[in-house]
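Hi D.,

Good news: the full-assembly prediction came through. Inputs first.
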Amino acid sequence: MKNTKQINVIQISKRILYYYLPVWIIYAVITSFLVGKEWGIIAFMSNFRFMLVMPLTMYLASVLPLLFFKSMPPVLRRSCVIFACLVIAIININLSADFSSINLSFDHLPLSTEAESAVLTVILTSLSYVVIVSWIYFMEEKQFITETEIIAEQNRKTQTEKRTTETYLKLLQAQIEPHFLFNTLTSILSLSDTDLNKAKIMHKNFMQYLNTALGKTRQCVTTVGQEIELIKSYLDIFKVRMGDRLHYSIEAEDGVKNLPFPSMLIQPIVENAIKHGLEPKIEGGEIKIKVTAHKENILCWQIEDTGLGMYEKSNPGTGLSNIIERIEMLYDGKGVLKLTENKPSGVKVIMEVPCV
Amino acid sequence: MSDTQVKIRAIIAEDEIPSLTLVKKQLLSVWPELDIVGEAENGIAAKEMIEELRPDFAFLDIKMPGLSGMEVARQTAGMCRVVFITAYEQYAVDAFDNEAMDYILKPATEERLIKTVNRLKAQIESKLPIGDISGILERLMKTQKPVQQYLQWVRAQAGDSISLVPVEKVYFFQAKDKYTTVMTKNEEYLIRKTIQELDDELNPDLFFRIHRGTIVNAGFIDKIYTLPGSRGQLCLKDRPEIHCISRSYSNRFKQM
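Then the structure:
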């Protein structure tokens, strides 16, 4: 914070100096024409003073509030500058007018026409000065703000790209979760000694899982049907490991299976249900998955388990926050993930995403 | 009892049937005189079995429903000798080695298993009393499972169901009469917990108390305006609300 504040002050000083210089030169040239007149010197002097006072006022008006308010809305800062300029301009006009009238028409009252025109010149130039300088200042300011916004936008874009890559990496990592791979291989090994038939089935399911999980996610678009296949093989593997403690059912509406759907978006939810819900529960339980397509092109997944459920302090796991992040990015904020408590126990997850 | 071929009685506790079968088979192949008197599929059954059968050895899987293997060992300390069954990498094998605990890896290689079994046999033959391992277990359990101390979920009544809202998705909590409003990006929930309770339970690095009645998620802070008198205002990303930072809670923003 401290750092940005300092940069801000320096930038403002620079900006005021840059646009002030050309204006100052033009103004000096114009006023120099007045020098030839009888009252010209006085008018020139008062304008010269005005020209010194003006940038100082603007500078102070833009910088001083920043010292008191660490960050203030731009509108408020602009108002400060305009207000300060106007006050100084009015003081200057009054001073110049008094000064001129006293010096030029002390001898012959009422005011001579020349003195009147001198006063008028000072007033007009001062006012036009305020208008020109403020106008240029705010044009610059506007451009500066637009530029900073563009930079911020670019930053945001790189951030999003970075996030996409990160989530993709996490996704890849999730697919090759070592525990799952290792446990499954151990189970196959165990079964090959005792129940060869089951070992074969499990091996087949494992191959199918790896095929879908590792092969298809590289292509961005997969279908609902493929995700269901992935979950089926995943659950079948666990069915062998957990035996009677796990039951599951998957229902998919007609025509839903061919809809495009990003791979590995539902699998982590099922994984969570097993890991935190059913595996630690003595009697095990059931997982029910339902896929329906609502009206208005909304695809709805419903994953229910009868496991232990979530406690207020139970760790949500990286899987879930990963999904939330992916939905946010893939559907641009139009996807919904809702978690509720299932009755009588367990968790019910509802995911609603637009069918693209 | 003078017979040298006294059967060694053991139980195996393992929740996955394939693993159980494999461990049993492998054990019997290298230790034929072992008599497996019971098989348990969860922690609670294992504990009851140990209490009832008083075997010489209990082979306990670490990860089991009901009670973990370590919990079972702790609760039945002194009743029998304990050998843990653990999957590769699952629970730090190094920790077991350091504490000189007996364990079996699944799947186990034959030579490793023979080594373990020989050690177990030696324990029985030397007739040493069963050592007290509860201290070691407590130490191990502490390192294995970091206790979640902060609130991770907010349970909010929504209609007739209870919604679970992960706290990382919450933008701010605001006191409202007796209740507290929980605001996510697009949704609003009411919960019964008071701001003070939430303040105590939430992770203080992620959630900032900025007012008597407001806690905001630090990850969603967009802009902070300071006002005279060490007060301030704060805006969150994606939300239109402007939150007041009161003087008493403004300290943590001063360092920024």
